[in-house]
User: Fold these one by one.
Assistant:
Number 1:
Amino acid sequence: MSRLDNILKLGNSRLHQISEPIRENELSEAHMVAIEMNKLIIDFRREYGAGRAISAPQIAYKKRLICMHNEGMHVFINPELYDESDEMMELWDDCMSFPELLVKVRRHKSCKMKYRDLNWEEKHIELKDDLSELFQHEVDHLEGILATQRAIDDKAFMWRSERKV
């Protein structure tokens, strides 16, 4: 059994549940879960050549936790997006919960995010372009929303193998 089998797939009703906030006394557990999530990102990249981040609900951990792997592990606890731009962008979104499917979605070109780190310090970051898109996707997971629900129309689906790069 591959570690990737731990990722819930499209059709699993648990992906549509809203995640609960992490409390400060749950930091140790959240850190352990984030380490596993980071390993999943690395394995997913090895298998599919894609994958930058994963949200805890995708592994059935119903807490507000996102892990990103970009030259190391980055953890975002209880993230909240705000100050979304009016300017939008369209893109083919992919997801570890449906790795062979791409979905054309519309996302805010920029936004800001408030979150806590593993030291329980509150942080604020400005997100633009691909990072804005990425965190909108991951925060959607925390709300039980999948990219398939954000498709721009009924023709906005494509198999990864059909994409002409």
Number 2:
Amino acid sequence: MTLEKQVAERGRLILGLDPNPKLMPKKVSILEFSDNVIKACAPHIMGIKIQMAYFEAFDVEGIFAIREIISKAKKAKLWIMIDGKRGDIGSTADSYANKYYFKKSPLSVNAVTINPLMGSDTVFPFINKAEVCNKHVFSLLYTSNPSGDEILGLPEVQEKLIAMHQEHGDVLGAVVGATRPEKIAELREKLPNTWFLCPGVGAQGGDADAALAGAKHHKVIFPVSRGILYASTGDNYAEAAARKAQELYTIVNAPRP
């Protein structure tokens, strides 16, 4: 199913999976935790975003959990994103792209995030594979972290990245922090047909209404991680996550003029 159809049928909310052992209930495995939260939140989300760093911190257990989560998410018809912000060149980038896009891989998903700051060598292997496989790439464009402006905010960097998005808008989405709605509005004028992935709603204080208005309510999706995953750190974590997901689903999908 295309991203457009997935959003039309299931809304704009993505469940971000950032399993943190300091916040997860004790004696619950990473797979059990993730699986229970996904099942509870499934009616309110269009997909999942797997933050690789958190899973890799669990070593072999984390990698095994990723494979199982991807398999189960596909059966549940959820859209799946790998959030690894890959940013290497040549054959390394090509290897990542092969792993994440081709159906024969157990890690094949619908989209990945990349860091474009090493140049076009880091981007085109992903774009080329995504075009062939009808998948998506989401490249950092304007992030929500406090120091994000130091490099990504430089006018000459923005100019280069925007030009790249304008050329490859069908598969190349942009990561734009929901905490900067004025920047979302500015970028939407230059990128009318680009998908925006807007993190920051929830724990970071981003305003979904302002972000949606900036994006002209068009081609925007919202990943939320901590705000859903840790709505409760007790044994009722899955039920609490579902309630928070339902609340956020209503906010990001409410009809607007």
